[in-house]
Amino acid sequence: MDSVSPARRSEIMGRVRSRDTKPELLVRRLIHAMGYRYRLHAKDLPGKPDLVFRSRRKVVFVHGCFWHRHSGCALARLPKSREEFWLPKLEANRQRDIKNERALQDSKWSALVIWECELANVVELKNRIKEFLDA
């Protein structure tokens, strides 16, 4: 049973953003401070990547652990109410992510996925980003 009314739940879910999320903004600031320049949300690329480095043919996705089903992550837990709604919805997100990454790879683009839970360790994250972008 949900602890809030359906109208309130609808209002809460309506505020969930698909772009310019807090994790995405944090990654953008971090990468900019590292000296890299990028474009945002390229509509011509599969999955509209969060950050696009065209000259390097590389993209970065910043995924929320819940919405994109980060396996083995505590933040990716399934809601206790309406599992019949949430499971197919979240699984479809995950399958779409896989399809988009394959399409990018087939087009000779490299993709890096940064999970929301990985933002806690900024030093390690910087190293991963630098290694990915400079390779």
- The coarse silhouette is globular
CATH architecture: 3-Layer(aba) Sandwich
CATH class: Alpha Beta
The span between the termini is 49 Å
**H and E string:** HHEEEHEH
Classified in CATH, the superfamily is VSR Endonuclease
Radius of gyration: 16 Å
CATH topology: Endonuclease, Chain A
Mean pLDDT rating: 92
Write the layout of secondary structure elements.
Elements: H1 6-14, H2 22-33, E1 39-40, E2 51-53, E3 58-63, H3 83-106, E4 110-115, H4 122-134
Parallel strand pairs: 3-4
Antiparallel strand pairs: 1-2, 2-3
Brief synopsis:
Helix content is 43%, strand content 13%. It has 4 helices and 4 strands. The chain has a 4-stranded mixed β-sheet, with helices on both faces.
Task: Characterise the protein shown here.
Helices cover 43% and strands 13% of the residues. With 135 residues, it is α+β, with helices and mostly antiparallel strands. It has one domain (18-134): VSR Endonuclease (Endonuclease, Chain A, 3-Layer(aba) Sandwich).
Question: What are the key terms here?
Answer:
single chain; 135 residues; alpha+beta; Endonuclease, Chain A; 4-stranded mixed beta sheet; 4 strands; globular
